[in-house]
Amino acid sequence: MADLSQLVKAYDVRGVVPDQWDERLARLFGAAFVEVTGAGAVVVGHDMRPSSPGLSRAFAEGAADRGADVTEIGLCSTDQLYFASGHLGLPGAMFTASHNPAQYNGIKMCRAGAAPVGQDTGLAEIRALVEGWTESGAPAAVARPGTLERRDTLADYAAHLRSLVDLTGIRRLKAVVDAGNGMGGHTVPTVLDGLPIDVVALYFELDGTFPNHEANPLDPKNLVDLQAKVRETGADIGLAFDGDADRCFVIDERGEPVSPSAITALVAARELAKHPGGTVIHNLITSHSVPEVVREHGGEPVRTRVGHSFIKQEMARTGAIFGGEHSAHYYFRDFWNADTGMLAALHVLAALGEQAGPLSELVRAYDRYAASGEINSTVADQPGRMAAVKAAYAGGENVTVDELDGLTVTTPDWWFNLRASNTEPLLRLNVEARDAATVARVRDEVLAVVRA
């Protein structure tokens, strides 16, 4: 029996092609997906990576082998696949490795209505079937194999997003958009077409070899070109999308990055204006600005662990209207609780265009604290170092400690979270305080214990 433990992750399938997986395995994943979900029909899409069309078609054929009718939507962003799953009411599969290098590919799977498929919601069973079938061979085709049908959903996806945010009356804006040769180059022109926004396009050519820079806007080096172009053109805003265009990172008119926590707070305030008294989900690494802004606008903040499965579970449980993460993932009830960077970008463009000031001034109300960013430390004994940090702070005056996700230590003036990586021998530290000097002091104190 094959061992797919390195290929099947907590929330998706991801690995190197063809070293770790290929079209033969993709076909088995398609069959197993139908077997586990019991789907009579599925929707399948893919990004611009060289291996994506072949893998996507193989998965579709495997699904059809088990009797499912397959709607192939071809090139799409991940949130466009979620739209198709929600709009058509079908389980879906998206072929992408997001921001990973060109030799990688993967599958993000969901049930009808874009409900995520992870280890606890079907992915473990899918893996077990595929592992068994690699040894015994695929099951015999069913009596009535399913059909394969092509369908373009881009215009419907764009129309849905624009129905949720009205940009027709905003002042004219100049926006530099860096698609990183990813799927933003496919979706942005259609979504923004006809709006009072002059788009300066960077790297809109679909190219899964990423010739200009990695399509990962969380890494500062991948924002350099966008920052320079914003300054050079005198643009009002810069937007950077990752490879599958489900995350969006924002740059202000000075070329400075805007914290995803500030974007979360801004969008939360706008969503609460539409849905008074609503619940907003945020993970525990987002700034304390987020729950403060939510409460100020009459909403109910709910704090969760890091990870999209936890966000989506809490959104479903609480009926939340919106959720945001420090990693620039933004989730909307109006989008089947799925994440869409494009919808968050439309909210920011609308907020900017509805008033006369620059973006840096607009976001100041939502960006109230100094932060360290994530700092990684390689350690041999993660539990031991975590325990040492807890011992150093627990019981201190005005100190609260919780272990919802790693270790969070909070005082009236600062807080930090220390979490272990699931895949590497790392501890990840985030510190926030009222000023940069306090951030530096707390950061150095905690790192001295972590790295002792």
Percentage of residues in strands: 15-25%
Percent helix among the residues? 25-40%
Coarse shape? globular
Number of domains: 4
Structural class of the secondary structure composition?
alpha/beta
Low-confidence stretches: none
- Mean pLDDT value: 96
- Count, helices: 14
What is the C-alpha radius of gyration, as a whole number of Å? Answer: 22 Å
Separation of termini? Answer: 43 Å
CATH class of the largest domain: Alpha Beta
Q: CATH topology of the largest domain, anyone?
A: Alpha-D-Glucose-1,6-Bisphosphate, Chain A, domain 3
Extended strand count: 22
CATH superfamily of the largest domain: Alpha-D-Glucose-1,6-Bisphosphate, subunit A, domain 3
Largest sheet: 7 strands, mixed
Task: Please state the second-level CATH architecture of the largest domain.
Answer: 3-Layer(aba) Sandwich
Summary, kept brief:
One of its GO terms (molecular function) is metal ion binding. The protein has 452 residues and is α/β, with parallel strands linked by helices.
Detailed description of the structure:
The protein has 452 residues and is of the alpha/beta class. It has four domains: 13-152, Alpha-D-Glucose-1,6-Bisphosphate, subunit A, domain 3 (Alpha-D-Glucose-1,6-Bisphosphate, Chain A, domain 3), CATH 3.40.120; 156-258, Alpha-D-Glucose-1,6-Bisphosphate, Chain A, domain 3, CATH 3.40.120.10; 269-340 and 362-366, Alpha-D-Glucose-1,6-Bisphosphate, subunit A, domain 3 (Alpha-D-Glucose-1,6-Bisphosphate, Chain A, domain 3); 370-450, Alpha-D-phosphohexomutase, C-terminal domain (TATA-Binding Protein). The chain contains 14 helices and 22 strands. It has helices at residues 23-37, 52-65, 78-88, 123-136, 154-164, 184-192, 224-233, 260-274, 289-296, 308-318, 341-353, 359-363, 382-393, 436-450, and strands spanning 13-16, 41-46, 69-75, 92-95, 104-111, 115-116, 148-150, 173-178, 197-202, 237-241, 248-251, 257-258, 279-283, 300-304, 322-324, 330-332, 370-371, 375-378, 400-402, 407-410, 414-420, 426-433. Strands 1, 2, 3, 4, 5, 6 and 7 form a seven-stranded mixed β-sheet that branches. Strands 17, 18, 19, 20, 21 and 22 form a six-stranded antiparallel β-sheet that branches. Helix 1 (23-37) crosses helix 2, helix 1 packs across helix 4 (123-136) and helix 8 crosses helix 11. The longest helix is centred in the first third of the chain and has 15 residues, at 23-37. It starts with 12 loop residues before the first strand and ends with a helix. Keywords: Isomerase, Magnesium, Metal-binding, Phosphoprotein.
